[in-house]
Amino acid sequence: MNSFSEPIRLVRTATPGQDSYRPGVCNIGKNEIRKRYAIGFVGLTIAGILAYVIAQFSLPIWSLLVCFFPLFLGAEGFLQGYFKFCAGFAARSIFDFSGSSNEKGKVTDKEAHNLDLRKAMRIHLYSSVMAAMVTTIIYLAGAV
Question: What does the pLDDT read at residue 75?
Answer without folding.
Answer: 98
